Amino acid sequence: MKVLKFGGTSVGSVEAIRKVAEILKKESGQEQLVVVVSAMSGVTNTLISISQKAAVRDASYESNLQDLEEKHCTAFKELTGNSNCFEISKLFVRLTEICRGVYLLRELTPRTSDYIQSCGERLSSYIISEYLKKEGLQVELYDSRKYLITDKKFGSANVLWQSTKAALQELKPQLASISVFPGFIASTSDNETSTLGRGGSDYTAAVLANLLQARELQIWTDVNGLMTSDPRLVPSAHLLEHVSYEEALELSHFGAKVLYPPSIQPALDAEIPIWVKNTFDPEGPSTLVTKEWDDEKQTICGISSIQDVALVNLSGASMVGIPSFSYRLFKALSQANINVIMITQASSEHSICVGISKTDAHAALEAIIEEFEQEISLHKIDEPVVDEDQSIIALVGSHMKNQVGISGKMFNTLGRNGISVKAIAQGSSERNITAVVAKADLKKALNTLHESFFLSELKKMNLFVVGVGNVGRAFLRQVQKQQELLAREFNLDIQVVAVANSRKSYFNEEGVDLTKWEQLLEHGNDSTIEAFIAQIKALNLRNSIFIDITASHTIAATYRELLESSISVVTPNKIAATRDMSSYLDLKYATKKYGSQFLFETNVAAGLPVISTMNELFKSGDRIHAIQAVLSGTLNFLFNNYDGKRPFSSIVKEARALGLTEPDPRLDLSGEDVMRKLLILIRESGRKWEMEQIEQVSFLPEACKNTPDLNTFYELLDAHEDHFLELYSKAKEKGAQLRVVASFQDGVAKVALEQVALHHPFYFLEGKDNIVLFHTERYKEQPLVVKGAGAGAEVTASGIFADVLRIANQ
Ligand SMILES: NC(=O)c1ccc[n+]([C@@H]2O[C@H](COP(=O)([O-])OP(=O)(O)OC[C@H]3O[C@@H](n4cnc5c(N)ncnc54)[C@H](O)[C@@H]3O)[C@@H](O)[C@H]2O)c1
Ligand SMILES: N[C@@H](CCO)C(=O)O
């Protein structure tokens, strides 16, 4: 025998009831079916409202009753083709009489209320059984009130187990192949109609399953089953195929509304497997709930949540060691009818903290103040503090038991996203780890936990890109090209959420379509950097990375604020890392404090792994003694290509057109760009160093320095062509190459143009290449060498991409 329960939405319309019939046709035949039905959706609430209106002499209840009758008659006629609604009308005549009585007496007793509410299930079960008969099924309708016997606690009556068992045992041999029972309703031993309270139809089904020794219980509803998390908050939440009763209980307690555990307790007691299925997708996937089984793979089964929670904290020195203290607190809350969702108390006993529904916050405060009035007035304990706008998240899984590292991973994941945990609770069953976080962080917390605990899950990185010039464009192109592969092969969902230039910004939380970002940005909103950052913060997305691909001081000045908000920063912009030492250290400190990252590999030698190599050397205990490098792609390009046949300025212009130079090439030519790079290398080698400590020997004629604009600069370069020709000729005479060399040795840092001879490692340095020689404790005889293209949009963009992936792979 199987018991099938159909909820309100499953019998809420003619179409839905037809689907129920199809399901029953498929299920019937092999074994007996017991079918439990709820009232049509919305009907119980309407009946409650009708009874309440009648009790306050609101005559509009009459028309509500008529509407209800019509709704049921219409459904009956449509389904059965029978225009005679006699049975339904008979029930409404009685119902109208009762409501009239309530109206006249102005009194609605719980007993009468139960009778009125019972009509919903009586009507739906009648209509459905008549329809099933018409469809040719062997159906019998049974009045649950004859078999489910309860006490007199009207409104949420308790089933009297022995009487019910006796009644059902007598009935069992006579049951039809399909026996329909109205859910939710029962009667007292005096034949008074009673109801079973919240989840009542599930309870009816579970009682029948238990006492009729059913093989299986099916709960048919409007979703496919239990999900790993709330799909409205976690779009990638997926269906759970198999959970244990205990897991279902934990998940349901924290928000999953599909199963109400107390209602299915009788099925749990008899270890009857429960299927949760979707009436509107009967062949689709579903959830099976059984007793616990061994499964080492499924450590976590779900992450559930309660959105609106308040935390009440009570603290004070006189709480310590007083046994009655918590008793009084919970007594006060219980007397005020307040349900406590979670409790935490540190072993210092100095404070106790309870999580309650936000709607109870005010009443809880009053109850606690009243209970502890004396202690508060004597300052033995502090006034209770309520923290509203909180949410609870709970990691659920039977197999977390005895598994090391689950809570570590949970809090590490939250911490890396800057999510502060206000309170924690874990029972010794280890089936649930509960944390309270600010409601504003709920979505972010759920999604980031979901990604880190479900291995098949894609990890989403949310990128905010400012600056879409040469490098910015190349970067967006590269991301677009790699997105699919990264998702497929590496479980990474790299998504650009916003792009901005100096005038406009365009946001799309679902990801900017990178095939047409230019049009989207062009039609984006007028924006300032302040507004852009405010919007990033308001979105509060997990794994957020701000990518600055400008050369702007203003943008660089925002990093601290971003890092503080646990938003990582990746940039080729050298400004932030080359301001005074204390600002540089401050940014590093912010990353440690707020769990964010500040990566700027492309500050030196574009995409070449220079900073990361040095960081690894430093962290692994090596000591950098000296650095010798060619760090400017532009300058190397100039001196590799200049031979006096065409003006020096034209080669500068060519380098600019190739995207090698800084947005303002005077920064390259002046040597400042190289000085910045050298300064970063010295700092990243663990030394405190300032720009002024770098000695610079400029190769530019005096007149070409500090020019007011770029055109004047080019004109002055032309005017001093002889100077460059002379530099070239002298080097050529000696068979040497010209290189702007950055060096750091014995406490001296220097940038200067040098003639390098044939034997020198810098002699053969093609095109825009860079080279860095690290002389270290471990690389004594021969330096560690990093060499390759040191400028250009593609290589720089790939270096930025590498930094993003470093953060993603953490
Ligand atoms: N080109 C290279 O080879 C290379 C190599 C390493 C590092 N970098 C660095 O990359 C950065 C970008 O270089 P590029 O070659 O792409 O320069 P670019 O001039 O082509 O692009 C910079 C972009 O930033 C935009 N911008 C400037 N101020 C802005 C603001 N306040 N808000 C939004 N956008 C703003 C500009 O409009 C421009 O589109 C620079 O910091 C540069 O030093 C470049
Ligand atoms: N303009 C720089 C590239 C960015 O660091 C160079 O030519 O090396």
From TrEMBL:
<keyword id="KW-0511">Multifunctional enzyme</keyword>
<dbReference type="InterPro" id="IPR018042">
    <property type="entry name" value="Aspartate_kinase_CS"/>
</dbReference>
<dbReference type="InterPro" id="IPR042199">
    <property type="entry name" value="AsparK_Bifunc_asparK/hSer_DH"/>
</dbReference>
<dbReference type="InterPro" id="IPR049638">
    <property type="entry name" value="AK-HD"/>
</dbReference>
<dbReference type="InterPro" id="IPR005106">
    <property type="entry name" value="Asp/hSer_DH_NAD-bd"/>
</dbReference>
<keyword id="KW-0479">Metal-binding</keyword>
<keyword id="KW-0547">Nucleotide-binding</keyword>
<keyword id="KW-0486">Methionine biosynthesis</keyword>
<keyword id="KW-0520">NAD</keyword>
<dbReference type="InterPro" id="IPR001342">
    <property type="entry name" value="HDH_cat"/>
</dbReference>
<dbReference type="InterPro" id="IPR001341">
    <property type="entry name" value="Asp_kinase"/>
</dbReference>
<protein>
    <submittedName>
        <fullName>Bifunctional aspartate kinase/homoserine dehydrogenase I</fullName>
    </submittedName>
</protein>
<comment type="function">
    <text>Bifunctional aspartate kinase and homoserine dehydrogenase that catalyzes the first and the third steps toward the synthesis of lysine, methionine and threonine from aspartate.</text>
</comment>
<keyword id="KW-0791">Threonine biosynthesis</keyword>
<dbReference type="InterPro" id="IPR019811">
    <property type="entry name" value="HDH_CS"/>
</dbReference>
<dbReference type="InterPro" id="IPR054352">
    <property type="entry name" value="ACT_Aspartokinase"/>
</dbReference>
<dbReference type="GO" id="GO:0016301">
    <property type="term" value="F:kinase activity"/>
</dbReference>
<keyword id="KW-0521">NADP</keyword>
<feature type="domain" description="ACT">
    <location>
        <begin position="395"/>
        <end position="473"/>
    </location>
</feature>
<dbReference type="InterPro" id="IPR036393">
    <property type="entry name" value="AceGlu_kinase-like_sf"/>
</dbReference>
<keyword id="KW-0067">ATP-binding</keyword>
<feature type="domain" description="ACT">
    <location>
        <begin position="314"/>
        <end position="386"/>
    </location>
</feature>
<keyword id="KW-0418">Kinase</keyword>
<keyword id="KW-0915">Sodium</keyword>
<comment type="similarity">
    <text>In the N-terminal section; belongs to the aspartokinase family.</text>
</comment>
<comment type="pathway">
    <text>Amino-acid biosynthesis; L-threonine biosynthesis; L-threonine from L-aspartate: step 1/5.</text>
</comment>
<keyword id="KW-0457">Lysine biosynthesis</keyword>
<comment type="similarity">
    <text>In the C-terminal section; belongs to the homoserine dehydrogenase family.</text>
</comment>
<keyword id="KW-0808">Transferase</keyword>
<dbReference type="InterPro" id="IPR002912">
    <property type="entry name" value="ACT_dom"/>
</dbReference>
<dbReference type="InterPro" id="IPR036291">
    <property type="entry name" value="NAD(P)-bd_dom_sf"/>
</dbReference>
<dbReference type="InterPro" id="IPR001048">
    <property type="entry name" value="Asp/Glu/Uridylate_kinase"/>
</dbReference>
<dbReference type="Pfam" id="PF22468">
    <property type="entry name" value="ACT_9"/>
</dbReference>
<comment type="subunit">
    <text>Homotetramer.</text>
</comment>
<dbReference type="Pfam" id="PF00742">
    <property type="entry name" value="Homoserine_dh"/>
</dbReference>
<keyword id="KW-0028">Amino-acid biosynthesis</keyword>
<dbReference type="Pfam" id="PF00696">
    <property type="entry name" value="AA_kinase"/>
</dbReference>
<dbReference type="Pfam" id="PF03447">
    <property type="entry name" value="NAD_binding_3"/>
</dbReference>
<keyword id="KW-0560">Oxidoreductase</keyword>
<dbReference type="InterPro" id="IPR011147">
    <property type="entry name" value="Bifunc_Aspkin/hSer_DH"/>
</dbReference>
<comment type="pathway">
    <text>Amino-acid biosynthesis; L-lysine biosynthesis via DAP pathway; (S)-tetrahydrodipicolinate from L-aspartate: step 1/4.</text>
</comment>
<dbReference type="InterPro" id="IPR045865">
    <property type="entry name" value="ACT-like_dom_sf"/>
</dbReference>
